Each structure stands twice: as structure tokens, then as C-alpha cells.
Amino acid sequence: MKPSEPGNGHGSILDDLVQPFQVEGLNLRGRLVRLGTAVDTVVRQHAYPGPIGGLLAEGLALAATLAGALKYDGVFSLQTKSDGPMRLMVADVTSAGDLRGYAQFDTDRLLELGDRADDRSFRRLMGKGYLAFTVDQGPHTDRYQGIVDLDGSNFVECAQHYFRQSEQLETGIKLAAGHAGDREVGWRAGGLMVQRLPANDDDEDWRRALVLMESCTRAELLDQALDPHDLLYRLFHEDGVRVYRPHPLRARCRCSRGRAESVLRLLPEVDLAEMVIDGQVIVTCQFCNSSHVFDETEVRRLRAS
């Protein structure tokens, strides 16, 4: 018997989604994230080297997984800032499911790593720094932000360190990112999170939940052909897994020409003058890499308005 489906189930959605679930026999809740086109679009908007693209894809999966467990109306952001070759990474997801992200890195220092800059070199790529989680629900609501040191060998260890520090629900997370098979099929990423509910005081049940979660393989998290319900059934069917309506995700940036105009209106004159090249000012979005071009006449009009 497959997972029971309150509400409308997942319908035809198999990819780019957050699938909430609950395992009643183990008294836990969870989220399964599957990212295909969405993560591939975000990463391919930039010419990132493989190790940088991989970490960004994994960061996007972590952001979607954590955001999927929150009730908010706005933007959930995950940001790293560190002294390693990968200086900065931002991944954010709106409550509507719009996903975007970018990374800044030092090319020379990345080249110095050579073959050591593979998918397992999180510490070498990141160095020392911090990981911040922010929930922004607009100008009339206080922002929530949690910060933890990048004190781990991967994103999962850093996130779990945060959960332990903040006395939130006991949480287990598993992430994967990369190319599922042939590199030509593009980037994929996935996340699986289980959280121990307050009513669960059975340590043996929680240990069993973590063992089952860990049994999920990287290939399973990245397999586009594997139905999310089938994966959850494979992992938790002995304990009664129930799924809820999934939340679709998509790659969509919030930049616009109007926002670029707002930036130009507020820039100091000296900074604006440095941006003028051949009579034009080009504003490029760090997230989606799209550019908005303004001639000097347009800039003067904006400054006067």
C-alpha cells in the first residue's frame, strides 16, 4: 500500500517540489525536496566551476528543505560568508515557491586547490565563516535571523549544529546535489528532513527514524524517474507514512527594470559616474545574471524624478 494522501495528493507533480509527510508510527514529520529544472536553471545562469555549482545546488536544496517546514509569507534566505575560495553564497525561496541563488568565489584560490576542489571539499572551499538563516516577511514585520559558524564538514552538519544551538525540534537532514548520470541532463538536487515531534519521547523510535533516513541513497535523492511517494514508501512503509499536498518550486528571480531604476536613483554621484561606460550604465542582477541597460539621458531623468 502506498502512502495515504490527505487532500489532493501530488497529482502529476514529480519534480521541483517540497513533499510534506508524516510518519505516524514514529511520531515525526518530514519534508522531501526534489529539484530538477529549477536548480539547473539557477546554477546554469552563471559559468560556475563544478565545485562551486555543486555547493550552490546543495545550498538551494537545503534552503528549500528548511523553508518547506516553516509557516511564513515572504522570503526565506540562506547565506554563507567565509574566508575560503567560495566567499559568499546566497540561496532564497519565497513562500510562493520562487527559487534563486548565486555564489561569489576567488578564481585564483580555487585553481590553487586543483584536484582537491572536488565535491567533498566543503571545508577547503568554504574556510571559516558563518551560515545565516533569515525569514523576511516584509517591512511591517520583524525579520528573524539565526546564525551559526560554518563548523562542519558539509551543509548538513552546519544546519544540525544550528538546530542544536537554537533548541528547536530534533532534526535529521540528508542532502544531495550533482548530475544524475550523464552530465548533459543538467544539475539536480534533493533533500530529506525528519523532525521529532514534541510528543515523541521514545528515543528508540527517533534512532530508527534517523537510520531509515540515512538509508536513503544519493542516487535515490537525485533520481528523476523515482516518484517521491515511492521513495517515501520505500523508506517508511513499515511505520505508516502519510503525505500531504506538495508545494511546487520554480526558478524565478525577483529583479526587474523598476528595481534597477530604484538603485540608480539612490546611488551616490561618484559611484554612478564610475558605472558610466561608453555613455551607458549597465545594472546586472547577481542572482539571474540578466542586465538592464540605461543611456545617460535615462539616468539623468531618473535622478531628476
Task: Explain what the structure shows.
- The protein has helices at residues 37-44, 50-67, 107-113, 122-126, 155-165, 203-214, 218-222, 228-236, 257-266, 269-275, 296-304; strands at residues 17-23, 28-35, 75-82, 86-94, 98-105, 129-136, 144-149, 171-179, 187-196, 241-243, 247-248, 250-251, 280-284, 291-295.
- The chain has 305 residues and is of the alpha+beta class.
- The strands form 3 sheets. Strands 1, 2, 8, 9, 10 and 11 form a 6-stranded antiparallel β-sheet that branches.
- The longest helix has 18 residues, at 50-67.
- It is elongated and about 70 Å long.
Record the SSE blueprint.
Layout (H helix, E strand, L loop, with lengths): L16 E7 L4 E8 L1 H8 L5 H18 L7 E8 L3 E9 L3 E8 L1 H7 L8 H5 L2 E8 L7 E6 L5 H11 L5 E9 L7 E10 L6 H12 L3 H5 L5 H9 L4 E3 L3 E2 L1 E2 L5 H10 L2 H7 L4 E5 L6 E5 H9 L1
Parallel strand pairs: 5-12
Antiparallel strand pairs: 1-2, 1-10, 1-11, 2-9, 3-4, 3-6, 4-5, 6-7, 8-9, 13-14
Helix pairs in contact: 1-2, 9-11
Estimate the helix proportion, in percent.
Answer: 25-40%
The number of E-state strands comes to 14
Indicate the proportion of strand residues.
25-35%
Gyration radius (Cα, Å) is 21 Å
What characterizes the major β-sheet?
A: 6 strands, antiparallel
Summarize the structure.
It is built from eleven helices and 14 strands. It is an alpha+beta fold and 305 residues long. Mean pLDDT is 89; it is low at 6-10.
